Amino acid sequence: MTQITEHAQAAPLPQVARLEFRDLRECVAAGWHDFRRAPQFGLFFSAVYALIGLGFVVFNAGTVLWTFAMSLGFPLFAPFAAVGLYEVSRRLERGGAMDWYKVLGIVKAEKDRQIPWMGAIIVIYVLFWSFLAHMIFALFMGISNLTNISSSYEAFLTPTGLSMIAVELGVGAVLAFVLFSLTVTSLPHLLDKEVDFVTAMILSFKVVTSNFVVMMAWAILVASLTLIAMAPLFLGLLIVLPVLGHATWHLYRRALI
User: Fold this and answer.
1) What is the pLDDT of residues 77-132, one digit of tens each?
2) What residues form DSSP beta bridges with 193?
């Protein structure tokens, strides 16, 4: 009970603040500052993502079984790793003790709170996204001549193939926007306060819609830096992910007041 009380406190629902582009710059700078002050935690939590990415490359994870395993396992675990980064930033902000036992204890305690519900929501969302992508592919390419698309890409350069790509990108962009909007501040909010996951997601969505241009810039920045970091055998994630994780904590603190 003491442990749970330490990392969450009941409070009135916060108000959505008006964000500016300078807030993004300052949050990234604060994230870098947090990473430099406690690099061992950032490297530990981000190493999980890097190792999973390397594992998929080494084991040539392109099968349906691997995709299903990733869809179930990774979204369930990822929020807990993110919580670890948020907790480090919160402790640095409040001058709390920076030791492994307390940080990992907070992460472990989240299994009895709202974070598992968020993980379940993300799993369901990813599975639906995967199903929808396969359905769109079948609707456009199902009537085409049988082609091994893994070795021959000519089918994608036909009018039907290009139309399918356009629809996939459009639907994917909408689904990515919704998922980003529901989670961008809800995860740190669930760590910081006693609030249910539905309320946290609603407030997160309001943050995005109330600061649409700024938050879209944040989404593009996160996606771009993550993509670049994946290029050198996922090793760039060891630096980029903890910095972005810490920065997300500071963005949450500015967005909900």
Assistant:
1) 788 889 999 999 999 999 988 999 999 999 999 999 999 999 889 888 888 888 89
2) 9
Q: Is 209 left (phi over 0), alpha (psi -120 to 50) or beta?
A: alpha
Query: CB of 225 within 8 A of CB of 244?
Result: yes
Tokens (6 digits) for 90: 């919160």
Instruction: For residue 97, give both structure tokens.
Output: 């003790």
Whether 148 shows a pLDDT value over 90: the answer reads no
Angle at alpha carbon of residue 29, lines to 255 and 47, rounded to 5°: 95
Q: Is the pTM of this model over 0.90?
A: no
CB burial of residue 110 (10 Å; 0-12, 13-18, 19+): buried
Dihedral angle sign, alpha carbons of residues 141, 145, 148, 152: negative
